[in-house]
Amino acid sequence: MAPARWIPGAVALITGVSALALVAPNAAGAAPTATLTPPGCTAAVAPATALAVTPAFAEVPGLPFGVATTADGKFTFVSSDGVVQPGGFGGGAVLVYRGDGTNGAAVATVHLGRAVAPAGMALTDHGQVLLVAADTELVVIDVRAAERGAPGAVAAEVRAPGSSAIEVAATPDGRFALVSMEDSKQVDVFRLSTGHRPRYVGAVPVNPLPVGIAFSADGATAYVTSEAEPNPTLTTPGTLAVLRVATAERHPATAVEHTVVAGCSPVRVVVAPGGTVWVTARGSDAVLGFSARDLAHGAPALVADVAVGEAPVGMVLFDGGRRLLVADSNRFGDPRATATLAVVDLAGTPELVGYVPAGVFPRQMTLEPGGKEIDVTNYMSSQLETVAVAPLVAAPR
């Protein structure tokens, strides 16, 4: 377990986490009741036990970014750049695997073209459609056609005004999709249709370098991370924006309700079952927990600050939301160095449990259906990693 870390503004020193919440509820992911001061930028990482976990690794073509698994667990999709195209040039592709990609077999490659760099992905329409954020486009892939390796799996490529599309998230009702446009300070909104032809609605203006998107359980609220404030310097913090989804669908320009400071370079966001909004603050080497209730009222909302490894990026909840796996990317360190995955316990006072081996620049991850394994893309070592959940759950605090 990690040693204590002091964050200015906190009045208690707790192993592995700065927190004013001395009385934490037992419910998984439930938010503590007091607030903290957001951390600044740091190069310090939390020491912790190397867990006795042996992941499986499989080589994949190109530079894998996103990963998504069908609800029945039969197929896995991996977005990747630098994949050889039919003309012999490198370009973007979605790789299709039967099974989880590590223990399964390659089925097909959906080529997206020489100039397309696919990033985040999301399944929607009852698993029939795969949405892919790619440069200036939202790409729509017919899942059944891709699983068969059939030509014409790309059902649509819709251009939008924004650039450097990085993450895509479909609303829980499947009617709309939000895409973070990293270089355009906006989140593009698309209306989805059963004909697989999205229509661009408009843009939600947010702070510079938006990346992560997540929805509340009821779909009424969206949370968006931005790496910087409006006038960024190397040490200014990033932010977490709170969007009203119904407004984004009709009048995107006015959808942002509140914006709060979210540490240094916040890049991904997930929402725990108990109402805590978790953010990876890449430049703070931490995962931060925010009270959804306080965010909704524009009140100080930071309730947990857990020090993890170097430059955390992707993360996923598992064990019913009681634990969190975090990709400590080490993306700005030695490019030949491997990185780690941090296991964070959320049941009670949030705390770092230990580390799991990873490849070079672990980036995105997903929990497989059934909750028994987690798939991780290792971007710079061209790997798909699979981690068994059982040992992560069994690891003591």
Set out the fold topology.
Blueprint: E1 13-14, E2 17-18, E3 49-50, E4 56-59, E5 63-69, E6 75-84, E7 90-98, E8 105-113, E9 118-124, E10 129-134, E11 137-142, H1 143-148, E12 154-159, E13 165-170, E14 176-181, E15 186-191, E16 199-205, E17 210-215, E18 221-226, E19 239-244, H2 245-250, E20 256-261, E21 266-271, E22 276-281, E23 286-291, H3 292-296, E24 302-307, E25 312-318, E26 323-328, E27 340-345, E28 351-357, E29 362-367, E30 373-378, E31 383-388, H4 389-394
Parallel strand pairs: 3-28
Antiparallel strand pairs: 1-2, 2-24, 4-31, 5-6, 6-7, 7-8, 9-10, 10-11, 11-12, 13-14, 14-15, 15-16, 17-18, 18-19, 19-20, 21-22, 22-23, 23-24, 25-26, 26-27, 27-28, 29-30, 30-31
Walkthrough of the structure:
By secondary structure, the chain is mainly beta. The N terminus is likely disordered. It starts with 12 loop residues before the first strand and ends with a helix. A 6-stranded antiparallel β-sheet has the order 1-2-24-23-22-21. A 5-stranded mixed β-sheet has the order 3-28-27-26-25.
Helical segment tally? Answer: 4
Q: Which overall shape is indicated by the principal axes computed on the Cα atoms? A: globular
Helix-residue proportion: under 10%
Strand content: over 45%
Uncertain residue segments? 1-27, 29-33
Biggest sheet, open or closed, and with what strands and sense? 6 strands, antiparallel
Q: What's the arrangement of strands in the largest beta sheet?
A: 1-2-24-23-22-21
Number of strands: 31
Radius of gyration of CA atoms, rounded to a whole number: 20 Å
| Mean pLDDT over the full residue set | 89
State the distance separating the first and last CA atoms: 7 Å
Structural class: mainly beta
